[in-house]
Amino acid sequence: MSKLTLWSGLGHHTLYPIPYTLILLLGLASPVLAQEQKLFDSLHARLAYARSDTEKSDILRALSVALEETDTSAASSYAEQSFEYARAARDEGRMAHFDLFMGRRFSQEGRYDSARARLMAVLKRAEIALDTDLLVRAYSQLGWNDMEIGEDREALDYHLRGLRLAEGSHDSVAIGLAYNS
């Protein structure tokens, strides 16, 4: 193992680069983890004072999205709680977010038929809620889902539907999402 020897007035010190690199990386990761913790603390504090079912649903959905890549179990739990509040509020758009979450999860797990069923539910609910953003996201995910199973024509069709919707809404974020697909 390579080493670095430093001389000082107190003698010499041998440094091994790997542990110090690890310490440096942990030191750099610390502010990021602290920011994430502040986000979770903030959302939990908001949840404690939330009054309406829709507000609770939105906060729980934000928690599920924040954890989706790092802690799928906790993310699923928050998403399910969010869905229950959305259902109590009879809010199709908020319920569609849960279906989108589950559709992505199923697709990531290779459960493409289950993903398709959830994503089709998103389309129905998003149409009822008149939510173009959800429609674009669902069509995009359906496109990725079909690409994974080799259904290239259907995948292209879904991506193009999402793009047309995004362009029709003149929503630059939705257009960017559609082009990114």
Describe the structure.
The chain has 181 residues and is mainly alpha-helical. It is built from eight helices and two strands. Helices cover 80% and strands 6% of the residues. A hairpin with a 2-residue loop joins strand 1 (4-8) and strand 2 (11-15). The longest helix is centred in the first third of the chain and has 33 residues, at 17-49.
Outline of this structure?
With 181 residues, this protein is mainly α. The protein is built from 8 helices and 2 strands, in the order ββαααααααα. The longest helix has 33 residues.
Shape: globular
The helix/strand series, from N terminus to C terminus, equals EEHHHHHHHH
- Number of helix segments? 8
Helix fraction, binned, reads: over 70%
Would you count the extended β strands for me? Answer: 2
- Spans of at least 5 consecutive residues whose pLDDT stays below 50 are 1-17
Which structural class fits the helix and strand makeup? mainly alpha
What Rg is obtained from the alpha carbons, in whole angstroms?
23 Å
Euclidean distance between termini CA atoms: 45 Å
Mind describing the biggest β-sheet? 2 strands, antiparallel
Share of β-strand residues: 5-15%
Strand order of the largest sheet: 1-2
Mean pLDDT reading? 80
